[in-house]
Amino acid sequence: MKIEKFDGGTIQQIAKIIGEMFAGSEISKLLKESNIENISQNSTKWRILEDCFITKQIQDDCANNILNFIKIAFNPIRNINNQNYENIRLEINRILSFKGFEIRTNGELGVVEKSTTINEARKRVNNLRNKLKERNVHNDIFKYCEEEIETENYFHVVFEATKGIFDKIRKITELKSDGATLIDEAFSFEKSNPLPYLSLNGLRTESEQSEQKGFMNLLKGIYGTFRNPLGHEAKIEWNIKEEDALVILSLISLVNRRIDNAIEVKKLV
Predict the structure, then answer these.
(1) Which residues of 138-170 are buried (b: 16+ CB within 10 A; e: fewer)?
(2) Angle value at C-alpha 42, between 40 and 43, nearest 5 degrees
(3) Which helix (H) or strand (E) segment is 116 a member of?
(4) How confident is the model at residue 210 (pLDDT cuts 50, 70, 90)?
(5) What pLDDT score does 238 carry?
(6) Could you tell me which of 172, 178, 142, 158 has the C-alpha nearest to residue 260?
(7) Distance (Å, whole) CA 123 – CA 230
């Protein structure tokens, strides 16, 4: 299949990304392996690639050999020691998405629906979104944090996902409170209030009652750790890294699933 020629801006962005990946000697090997002659008089790596890509595309009247070069350059075996490989793969996929292509995790070239806007390109190859999907996180994470996930804002993804838990409890129970008060009102089963709004189980055995109390403490811990401080501290004071955010969001997903499966006791009475 003959691939339509790439515009100059696309070629330049591809050249810059790949130019940062490899040493000059490696780029020379890649060009030779890709059957692209090194005709450039430049000394800067990305400019060498830009010159060679433009010349080859003119000769071929198509972009096939540029795509072939990208596929060879992004072979996972070739990049086995590059710890930043996955981020670079996503970066080049943002560019390629405008042309309807992507480099898949196995290094193969795939066809995708073309992006027409920057937001579409970001969303399609969003690193955080993909990792959340790989972890099969609860749909409420995407429901409450769509904008924050799109911009990969870890701080506010955690904040909004935590707020979402308590919003969900209020909607189910029709209670109006928040935080520890809401948790007690929704889940407690003391003698004065033996029937909670929500129960994880039948509360018949000591083990079942301990599970309910433990879940309440977990919810209070999440609120105290991620909701309350985040609501009062400046973002710069809470440096949440991607891996930390993924772990926290996985925990919040577990909490959401337990709430989904909880018995709505008050509605049974």
Answers:
(1) bebbeebbeebbeeebbbbbbbbbbbbbbebbe
(2) 125
(3) none
(4) very high
(5) 60
(6) 172
(7) 25
Closest CA to 252 of 133, 127, 140: 140
Structure tokens belonging to residue 247: 């772990």
What does the block give as tokens for 197? 């709004």
Residue 115, token pair as written in the block: 């992006």
- Lowest mean pLDDT segment, chosen from 67-71, 225-229, 261-265: 225-229
* CA distances to 45, 47, 261 from 38, in Å: 11, 11, 62
Q: What is the DSSP string of 161-212?
A: HHHHHHHHHHHHH-----HHHHHHHHH---TTS-S-S-BSS---SHHHHHHH
Q: Which of 77-91, 200-214, 237-251 has the lowest mean pLDDT?
A: 237-251
221 Cβ contact partners less than 8 Å away, ≥ 6 residues apart: none
Half-sphere exposure of residue 198: CA atoms within 13 angstroms, side-chain side: 28
Q: What is the DSSP string of 8-63?
A: HHHHHHHHHHHHHHS-HHHHHHHHHHTT--------SHHHHHHHHHHHHHHHHTSS
pLDDT, tens only, 93-139: 999 999 999 998 889 999 988 989 887 777 666 678 878 888 999 99
Give me the amino acid identity at 136.
N
132-165 pLDDT, tens per residue?
A: 888 999 999 999 998 888 777 888 899 999 999 9
Tell me how far apart the alpha carbons of residues 10 and 63 are, in angstroms, rounded to a whole number: 11
pLDDT the model gives residue 236: 44
Q: How many alpha carbons fall within 13 Å on the CB side of residue 130?
A: 12
